[in-house]
Write a structure and sequence with these properties.
The protein is α+β, with helices and mostly antiparallel strands. It contains 13 helices and 19 strands. The protein folds into two domains: 166 residues, Creatinase/prolidase N-terminal domain (Creatine Amidinohydrolase, Chain A, domain 1); 265 residues, Creatinase/methionine aminopeptidase superfamily (Creatine Amidinohydrolase). The strands form six sheets. Strands 6-5-4-1-7-8 form a six-stranded mixed β-sheet, sandwiched between helices. The protein has a three-stranded antiparallel β-sheet with strand order 9-12-13. Strand 12 and strand 13 form a beta hairpin. Helix 5 packs across helix 6 and helix 8 packs antiparallel against helix 9. 39% of the residues are buried. The protein binds glycine and manganese (II) ion (2 copies). One manganese (II) ion binds next to loops.
Amino acid sequence: MQAEYRQRRQKLMETIRTGTAIFRSAPMAVMHGDVEYNFRQESDFFYLTGFNEPNAVAVIAPHHEEHQFVLFVQPKDPLMETWTGYRVGVDLAKAEYGADEVYPITELDEHLPQYLAGADRIYYRLGRDRTFNQTLLDHWQCLLAKVPKEGIGPIALEDPITVLHPQRLIKSESELALIRKAVEISIEAHHLAREMAQPGRYEYEIQAEMERLFRLRGGVGPAYPSIVASGFNACILHYTENTRQIQDQDLLLIDAACSYEYYNADITRTFPVQGRFTPEQQILYELVLTAQEAAIAQVQPGKPYNVFHDTAVKVLTQGLVDLGLLQGTVETLIEEEKYKPFYMHRTGHWLGLDVHDVGVYKQNKDTWQPFQPGQVVTVEPGLYIGLDIQLAEDQPEVPEKWRGIGIRIEDDVLVTADGHEVLTAAVPKSMAAITTP
Ligand code: GLY
Ligand code: MN
Ligand code: MN
């Protein structure tokens, strides 16, 4: 894996050439009082270094004569390590993480300027830590003062997302292997959830067993707060309380998946807990499934990114018109966004180290990015008819029988050279697979 981190840095160096890029590790986050959350590394920092500690800074300086990759890390400290865990320390970081030079983080001010002085720009993302931002800006300001006379030095500060995120958007084989592993564990958990679901169970019982599996199979845990939403709870997009007792005839919407070595899956399934739909549930489920399959078919290399979303919106809106839930022409309803009370989110997002992964969706204001092999995208249309759904004034009242039904179906799709691969295809979603005859 070290070879791959080196390759990633190499590629970044080829892009920034005369600039210096600085990446900061994630901070420890406070849960309450003096108790902290489990550490989760900042994704850009991890992508380039594989180094999994807080209080660290990575410097990439391709133009520097001696050190192109420098780490500042927490020094070894036996007493602190007794409390908060093992630290790699300065000496081992050099050997194990391939840095040309490693300093204790306490010596940042002393050593950082030499890596900035010869650069013509600094790539750094202003972060939440204002003290660190200020430190960096102070160093930059000192160097700027010399630029007029000496003619060299960084004259611009640029957010590194412009150079790094296009790189992260295309997944390597080893990244795909980790996503596949996260997917594999998540699939097992969704199967288990199907077996467990029945009236009388609490939503949290299913959440607990799924998350148990995530960890039991070696994952970090849930990729995002698990949503186990029965009945009308499925109409709340980010329902995470998971406290309701499942009732007869409920649909159960489960949006839950595993994170494995920080790479994520993201899967939603909706099914009738007793294996039988009510007529309204079935009609809406079939409509969402049709929209999802039509959208997945649009995930092809070269196709503009927005086409799969537009396809889903078209199928759903046409379906709602056919059912009398919307009135008007499909074209106008879409143009005036009158379908939005039923379908208010987009149909997908990039997936990777972040669940809503980095990378632009548009090339410019008017042009969407075409899909490219190696990208992973979620495809997740839904319909949500909340108990209090409110449509535009010129639309009919939604009859009672449709209310309280929420459905989403979400798969993770890899763009391949000649089409796509649905990584999560093994989680059942066809009518035949989720109903009992
Ligand atoms: N589970 C978060 C999402 O689907 O985007
Ligand atoms: Mn999801
Ligand atoms: Mn998603």
